[in-house]
């Protein structure tokens, strides 16, 4: 398995937490047929803010939250966690203010999701482009269409979605220098080395034996390894030019290496280059 290619929730613990909590709460509420009107006020606010309004919205919304993990890989988990917190607070204040005038029902994590979509539009480059109805669109259109379908399918969520977009625009505008905020994340400490001298000496002896035996064996040079990798995966100049246009500050050699590692998958190659940028 290629360790340079992020897959699943690798390098995205905040996204994993959001998908598990929001997706799990939405599925549980749908299966148990939870009615928020019968809950106490505090539980009503918690459940309504963590659950989507229908099964269809749960599927689409959870998929969009999973897709937004690329923002976390691009920005880093501490910055992404701070962005989620700021967007939650800002959108809640905007919804509370709009509720006094529009009297709409405040429910679901639609605001935070559309704040993420605003960031997705601003900082994530398109991986590919293709013609559609006489115009050229990017592969990001699938995300936008899914979000638009979710918003327009139920008019009661339009106002929270607009509040989320407004919150995302405020963050993108760096009002109050909020882009510099970070949540602290600590790495797990590595285990201390063993104090057993006999085991360490035997390990050193094994290592020295391995080094001495391997020193007599011919090792492939970097050029040979690169040629063998290129023989396995043929990268076209068209893909290299397309990726270079999306990442103008990255050398063509790095773009070619990313495409080779991703086996010509431009989406995976873009993830690799974004991760290299972090």
From TrEMBL:
Gene3D superfamilies linked: DNA helicase RuvA subunit, C-terminal domain
Locations listed in the record: Membrane
SUPFAM superfamilies cross-referenced by the UniProt entry: Rhomboid-like (SSF144091), UBA-like (SSF46934)
Ranges for region Disordered: 190-234
Keywords, comma-separated and alphabetical: Membrane, Transmembrane, Transmembrane helix
Domain called CUE: residue spans: 235-278
Bias type Low complexity, positions: 191-208
Top-level taxon of origin: Eukaryota
GO annotation, cellular component aspect: membrane
Gene Ontology molecular-function annotations: serine-type endopeptidase activity; ubiquitin binding
Bilayer-spanning residue ranges: 17-36, 42-66, 78-98, 142-172
Keyword RNA-binding: no
Protein's membrane topology: Multi-pass membrane protein
Identification of the protein by name: CUE domain-containing protein
Coiled coil: none
Organism: Lichtheimia ornata
